[in-house]
Amino acid sequence: MQHNDLLKYLRSINVGQHVFPRGRGSEENVKVKIIVPLLQALGWDLLEDIYFENSNADIVLVENNIPQIIVETKSWGAVIEQQHLSQCLEYAINLKVPWVVISTGQITEVHCAYIDPKNFHESRPIIEFR
């Protein structure tokens, strides 16, 4: 999917109709309808690079058979909290992944998985975008 195609696609999403905020399955809708197309537009291949529900992580991005990034998807209306980061960091330790992305489809945070456990609660995203 090219950049312009992705923008056109994302603009076509009617959240109430397509993502079902506060509804059952909205996390899956965010993952399938927003996050996966974005990852594909960024060059990740659905068949070769994107793995679902790997070691409890929603999405694991792999390059040359080595896990690189964990993507944890939350529901559309969720607030990203420290407990979400803690959950992702457990996955990152198990898979030896250096990067963690947490996204609600509205808000996306990128974290380095190499966080000093003593200062964990002071950790902030490297990048946050809406």
Protein architecture, described:
The mean pLDDT is 88. The chain is built from four helices and six strands. Strand 1 (50-54) and strand 2 form a beta hairpin. By secondary structure, it is an alpha+beta fold. It is globular. It has a six-stranded mixed beta sheet with strand order 1-2-3-4-5-6.
Spatial order of the strands in the main sheet?
1-2-3-4-5-6
The average pLDDT is 88
Largest sheet: 6 strands, mixed
Q: Between the first and last Cα atoms, what is the distance in angstroms?
A: 20 Å
Residue windows where pLDDT falls under 50 for at least 5 positions: none
Estimated structural class: alpha+beta
Give the proportion of residues in helices: 25-40%
Strand content: 25-35%
Lay out the secondary structure.
Blueprint: H1 3-12, H2 15-19, H3 26-41, E1 50-54, E2 57-63, E3 66-73, H4 82-95, E4 99-103, E5 108-112, E6 127-129
Parallel strand pairs: 3-4
Antiparallel strand pairs: 1-2, 2-3, 4-5, 5-6
